[in-house]
Design goal:
five-stranded antiparallel β-sheet, single chain, 13 helices, 424 residues, 16 strands, binds zinc ion, nine-stranded mixed β-sheet, alpha+beta
Length: 424
């Protein structure tokens, strides 16, 4: 139904394109704030530089005719009015804060692509039924204040605002105090703002689109992630006098488990991944057979069933490897983040907009956390990825082409317009 009506809309109205040069100019101007020696930006959340970036966005949005609302977590909502003032806005956005040695595009692109959508709609004189909003989410990076994505997390009810306010940076300054200091502790209670649908445009931060020569990723969701602590206990023994057949070598068992985990991930490919990243061997002596090993396991997959199957396969592998040789095993799941599936209609809007612009979008799963992941629990949500050079991000050399950034913003424009409805 949705696809059919979108198709009719597209024949009725030509596919729109943003002004890529203007978008690029805005990105470069924003990058000047907190510019670093190697061509990146440093705007830590709620620093003076972050305030300056926010002020610039706000000025640009007001010049584009937007009204501004700031909520109690400092999230900024820039609204372009629609014909139906009571309709929940079709929103987009991301973050302006960066890593200490951040790039010009991570987050910033999503915010300024939203601004460019608004500027272009103004230029074309297009009125939408629902309002259009560009949003800046506070402290996405988590570099200054942990956890990351705190502004969208409080908005979605995942984090408690009082706890978020109490979070302190390394200098002991709290997030709540710093919000007030920079003038962005707003009146609207965080989470009260209605959102009809949310789209986030972002650089991929991975190598897939570039490697496949594709321009647009239609993101269908974000992978689930489970963390485990595993401890294997055998027996310490003399490395010279203990025959191999009599050993209960905890490290050897751990190594076999790590090898099996890689096989389990491959069996759930291409999206399944498994990592043993931390290993502690006891007593860690070169001439003692290790009696005890503690290690971490990180399992990820975009589908809950597959993630559960990977966990079950890991448990079987542990039993098969440890039990015959008398090694005791203990496994504890210390955290579980469920996979996120974006809204099928929003994903379809992205796909249809990309195709109308002449791109064959790549269906993708996000490997990184984004504000959109939290928004997905409170509003229909979709994401658009564009390539970045060598997949490098969280780095001053982070790079994307003006053409790809413009293409992603044009997809955003058409997807949002389809969702907001064009007033006749
Ligand atoms: Zn980001």
């Amino acid at each position: 139904m949705a696809a059919a009506s979108a198709g009719l809309d597209r024949t009725a109205a030509p596919t729109l394109r943003v002004d890529g040069a203007r978008l690029w100019g805005s990105l470069m101007a924003m990058a000047e704030i907190g510019a670093t020696a190697k061509g990146g930006s440093c705007r830590l959340a709620l620093s003076d530089e972050d305030r300056e970036g926010r002020d610039l966005f706000r000025r640009w949005a007001e010049e584009a005719g937007c009204s501004i609302v700031i909520d109690s977590m400092g999230n900024i909502f820039a609204r372009r009015a629609g014909r139906d003032a009571s309709a929940a806005p079709v929103a987009t956005g991301s973050h302006l804060d960066t890593q200490p040695t951040g790039g010009k595009f991570d987050g910033v692109y999503g915010v300024l692509a939203g601004l460019e959508v608004i500027r272009r709609l103004n230029e074309l004189g297009i009125e939408t039924d629902a309002p259009i909003e560009a949003i800046v989410w506070t402290n996405e990076e988590g570099a200054r204040f942990a956890p990351s994505m705190i502004g969208s997390g409080v908005f979605a009810g995942v984090f408690d605002q009082a706890e978020a306010y109490a979070t302190r940076d390394l200098d002991g300054k709290s997030l709540g105090e710093e919000l007030a200091r920079v003038g962005y502790r707003g009146e609207e209670p965080c989470g009260a703002h209605p959102i009809g649908a949310f789209f986030e445009a972002h650089i991929e931060q991975g190598p897939v689109l570039e490697a496949e020569g594709r321009t647009i990723g239609a993101v269908v969701g974000a992978q689930g992630m489970n963390w485990y602590d595993v401890e294997l206990s055998g027996a310490e023994a003399h490395a010279g006098t203990t025959p191999m057949a009599r050993r209960r070598d905890a490290y050897l068992a751990a190594a076999r488990v790590a090898d099996r985990l890689a096989a389990i991930a491959h069996a759930h490919g291409p999206h399944g991944v498994a990592t043993v990243g931390q290993v502690q061997v006891f007593p860690n002596s070169r001439n003692t057979v290790p009696g005890r090993v503690a290690f971490s396991v990180d399992l990820r997959h975009p589908e809950a069933d597959a993630l559960a199957a990977m966990e079950a396969a890991m448990a079987r592998a542990l039993a098969e490897i440890c039990d015959p040789v008398g090694i005791e095993r203990r496994i504890e799941r210390i955290s579980a983040e469920a996979p996120i599936g974006f809204d099928p209609d929003c994903v379809e809007a992205v796909r249809a907009a990309a195709q109308a612009l002449g791109f064959e979008p790549k269906e993708m799963v996000s490997g990184a956390g984004h504000d959109a992941c939290f928004l997905a629990s409170v509003a229909p949500t979709g994401m658009i990825f564009v390539p970045c050079a060598d997949g490098i991000s969280h780095n001053e050399v982070e790079s994307a082409t003006p053409e790809d950034l413009a293409a992603g913003a044009s997809v955003l424009l058409n997807a949002m317009l389809e969702r907001a409805g064009r007033a006749a």
